[in-house]
Design a protein that fits this description.
alpha/beta; eight-stranded mixed beta sheet; 39% strand
Length: 183
């Protein structure tokens, strides 16, 4: 938390979020920031995208809480993850921290070639998969919708989603994340 307060108080920096999950979806992100958003494609070096951040969500269709898996980044020296940069203001960073409340904020500026400013991302460090956890189809749809402007990104995401076995994906909507497993 001390690091976050320090970042928010630095009014002179231009700040960006490296988005690689639901924050890539302009509509979803715009609801949080209460403004239209635009993105810059970016590659984060030394990190690999995984679906190992687990939270408990209320699943509307089954009418119960389920373990849901979300996108995450793990350090892996020879890897890189394609995502997008979103320019943010200080107060918007606070809103994103509330939204991504079971992730930690990390400065990744040094892992992006020629960053346009300071770059941060959200990473979940508690990633123990529940015995029964699913990738939500609605979450997959958000990520695919987000990446439609970036053909290389959508191609990579489709490959990731094709690697899931059908039992790992659950359809239907969900409500708020309870964050009982990642915090």
């Amino acid at each position: 938390k001390i690091i976050v307060l320090t970042i928010i108080n630095m009014k002179t920096d231009t700040k960006y979020i490296f988005a690689y999950g639901s924050l890539m979806c302009p509509e979803s992100c715009a609801r949080t920031l209460r403004r239209e958003v635009s993105y810059i494609p970016a590659t984060l070096k030394g990190y690999e995208r995984k679906f190992n951040a687990v939270g408990s969500v209320y699943h509307n269709d089954s009418k119960k809480n389920i373990g849901a898996r979300f996108a995450n980044l793990i350090e892996k020296q020879e890897s890189e993850s394609i995502g997008i940069l979103l320019e943010i203001k200080d107060l918007e960073l606070e809103e994103l921290i509330k939204r991504e409340n079971f992730y930690n904020l990390l400065d990744v500026s040094s892992f992006i070639d020629n960053p346009p400013g300071r770059v941060f991302t959200f990473i979940c460090t508690k990633t123990a998969l529940l015995e029964e956890s699913y990738v939500l189809q609605t979450y997959v749809n958000l990520m695919l919708l987000a990446s439609k402007k970036f053909p290389l990104l959508i191609a990579l995401l489709v490959l990731v989603f094709l690697s899931f076995i059908p039992q790992e994906i659950i359809s239907g909507g969900f409500l708020s994340i309870i964050c009982k497993y990642c915090n």
